[in-house]
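Ticket #4471: structure output looks truncated?

Reporter: J.K.
Steps to reproduce: submitted the chain below (196 residues) through the standard prediction queue, then opened the result file.
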Amino acid sequence: MFRRLSPRYRAGHFAVSCLLCLGFWQLGQGAYIPAKAWVAQELMQRAWRRAKDGDAEVAPWPWADTWPVARLSAKGGDIELIVLEGGSGRTLAFAPAHLSISALPGEAGNSIIAGHRDTHFQFLQFMKRGESIMIEMADGNNYLYQVTDIDVVDSRRGSIVLDTESPMLSLVTCYPFGALEAGGPMRFVVTARMIF
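Returned output as attached by the reporter:
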């Protein structure tokens, strides 16, 4: 009734099965970070709504050591992102992050927000001088910034100015976009001045 499969056929079948499993594993690995970023944005939207209702330092999930501080809008509203407080690697895995050493948006000084080039800040590569960036704070204040400079800098040779006379915003991500290896020294910096 059943045919006995030859050892050669079984070996081929096993090899194909292994290759399929490896392929699915690689696809899963490639989708993990973008999927985590999307889920985190949904959880952060809930925390953001609570912060807008007056709750202070609302963690998006129980074990989070960060909280939403702002909402960033760009590209005519096509981009809307919750910004978390603190620029640790753990925070950046979920969302763009306001660096605690910098001014808050709307204050005198430079407000620095960092994000990953392959998820949240992928859109920076398409920004142009003169475009607008809106920052909404939990207290209801909105700050409109206009892009003045777009630069690629070597993080080993320079730094971003923190103390500025007028309120500024710097959006920072790794460069080049689409690089296969993470952690290089180059940074893509979009600088904007507050116009109101």
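Triage note (M.O.): checked the attachment and the full token line is present. Residues 110 and 168 are 5 Å apart (CA to CA).
Status: closed, working as intended.
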